[in-house]
Amino acid sequence: MDQSESDVIIVGGGVVGSTLALLLGEAGWQVAVVDAAPAPAGDARLGQGKPALRVSALTAASQRLLMALDVWPWIASRRVSAYRGMQVWDAEGSGEIDFDADEVGVDALGHIVENDLLLAGLARRLQSLPNVEWLHEVRVTGYERRESAARPGARHASDAVITLDDGTQRRAPLIVGADGANSPLRAMAGIPVSERETGQAALVTTVRTAVGHGAVARQAFLATGPLAFLPLIVDGRDDHCSIVWSTTPGEARRLTALAATDEGRAQLGIELARGLGERLGDVEVIDAAPHFPITQRHAQRYVDDGLALIGDAAHSLHPLAGQGVNLGLMDAAVLAEEWVRARRRGAPPGDRRILVRYERRRRNENVAMLAAMQGFQRLFGSRQPALRLARNWGLSGVNRLMPVKRLLIRQALGEYGDLPERCR
């Protein structure tokens, strides 16, 4: 039975897991990535034609991280969509708040990037590192900690051993779970998770609009949940948007079914335009409209003996603020920073003190974001007249307070908390 050994095994090769692999690979670590998904698609067809359904809204901090890793230039050469403004309003009232990049002297508030492009850009860089091994279409079926002193020449007192679905085993003093919100590794390690059903599902699709978006991201809080129009630039035109519509599960099923026919897509376009208050004129749906349930999860701890969770494996939240991938990228950057610093000081791999520092730096910020999303959902989902009046006054009041607006914009840029060095 194979007992291949690495410095670290990363389970999950999505955007967050790939970023951690690149950070550690550049630092000279022997890295193995175990991923259930197939290899990312080739370069030729990416960033051309119809945009991919799944996109991410990247903050300035996340962009700086990808720039430091020499991933961003390639992605930007294909297709990214900067947004300079944001409009958020209560569709059932008069409250509205507007943000503009000029208010804090930056070029953009963020960028919308297709997930396929992100993965391809990371994969290109990883392929140039001989010390990073990638196992595609492989699943982890077992996990255990095993003393390594009995092995001749063992470098570590204790290793993580994972069993793969082909029967082989891999071992390392460090293992990272980056395998998503339903993390199998988290379950195998016996780490409890707190779950909160939001009572909503998120529908995603891509549309073409009669009126150009003008590099402005828009979000309307409807009675059933928030509707976001995220601006895309396609062939130099600003008439495309990526949609994230959070609504009740039953309504999401109805809307998904509409997108299955030409007549239904036309009706869905009408409902999307109406939900946005006709701000971008007629809306044409140009893709399928799948939906997925929204469940907020938070692991009760991020670390164990030689084990760390990052990204959705540690925390998953409501998509209304578009912060999920950004929080995961910060997890990866902080974890790599702590490990690289510790190795320079001669600390052994798997030192629990390193993992505790990572958890301490990230947990409070993630808890704050999870609580904020829960609060927003409850505030804007309430039908109580007093709360509706308060939220409209609140939005309009903040819109007139420039110091508060600047603070909120800085948070939207990801410029808050204990940022890792490569994100500053």
Structure report:
By secondary structure, the protein is of the alpha/beta class. It is 34% helix and 29% strand. A hairpin with a 2-residue loop joins strand 15 and strand 16. Helix 1 runs parallel beside helix 4 (115-126), helix 3 (72-78) packs across helix 4 (115-126) and helix 8 runs antiparallel to helix 9. It is globular, with a radius of gyration of 22 Å. Mean pLDDT is 88; it is low at 150-156.
Keywords:
34% helix; globular; 22 strands; nine-stranded mixed β-sheet; alpha/beta; 424 residues
Rg for CA atoms = 22 Å
The portion of residues forming beta strands comes to 25-35%
- Give the N-terminus to C-terminus distance in angstroms: 45 Å
- Which outline best applies? globular
Tally of extended strands? 22
Which class best fits the helix and strand makeup? alpha/beta
Task: Give the integer mean of the pLDDT values.
Answer: 88
Largest sheet: 9 strands, mixed
Helical coverage, percent range: 25-40%
Tally of alpha and pi helices: 11
Family: Belongs to the UbiH/COQ6 family.
Pathway: Cofactor biosynthesis; ubiquinone biosynthesis
Keywords: FAD, Flavoprotein, Monooxygenase, Oxidoreductase
GO molecular function, one term: monooxygenase activity
